Amino acid sequence: MAVQNPHDKFFRESFSRIEIARNYLEEYLPTEVLALLDLNTLHLQDGSFVDETMREHQTDLLYQVQLAHGDVAFIYFLFEHKSYPDPLVILQLLRYMVRFWEQQLKDGLPLAPIIPLVVYHGERPWNISTDFHSLLNAPAVLRTYLPSFHYHLSDFSHLSDETIKGEIWLRVSLSVLRAILNPHLHRE
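The structure corresponding to this sequence follows.
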């Protein structure tokens, strides 16, 4: 897939490396989720679930990992990065998730859980809810009939390079993503 945007390309190149993705998950996933996973089985999946028309503007990465207790079930992580707060990111993630599940059904596989991850490195803090219900103006009684999920957000907008956690390659990758938007680093 040809990615036109330089920070999308950098994100894809960095987070396609198993050691960077594994280190990100170790450092930024909630401990109760991390405890369920065998990160030694982390594997990058081929393909993308981004619309053909959106490929020059967006990138996604999909990983699979076995559960720690040995079940044959898999957890799929959908990485999506953003450089600006996007109130519709949760709808975009739902679209990716449904496409993936449709592909699993087409391949005769059972549906696997998906944990959507958003890596944000914009100039101002992310102030958008991670709950799908927040996107809809619906009375509480109707929420039973609506999709219900959250995405895991890592907001690096307010962190200094010194407070970014992880091994050197993860810290460098996240620091570079943040620096891309720094106007003092751009040459005229």
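The CA atoms of residues 44 and 78 lie 10 Å apart.
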